[in-house]
Task: inverse folding
């Protein structure tokens, strides 16, 4: 559902419908936020892996 549905349920004075619409909207927003956070975390992990590989290469060059 959307914000429009939440407003409509409020206007209709339907507390159960309002609660359900609000819960659905909040659930959707939390899910999007979590997905974005996981994607950001995955991206950060990839960057760290690349940095680690570069550090390993630098260490190998120093040993030679």
Result:
């Amino acid at each position: 559902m959307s914000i429009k549905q939440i407003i409509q349920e409020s206007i209709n004075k339907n507390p159960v419908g309002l609660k359900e619409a609000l819960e659905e909207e909040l659930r959707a927003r939390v899910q999007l936020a979590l997905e974005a956070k996981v994607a950001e975390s995955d991206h950060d992990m990839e960057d760290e892996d690349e940095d680690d590989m570069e550090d390993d290469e630098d260490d190998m060059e120093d040993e030679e």
User: Anything to note?
Assistant: The mean pLDDT is 84. Residues 7 and 51 are 49 Å apart (CA to CA). The chain has two helices and no strands. The longest helix spans residues 15-63.
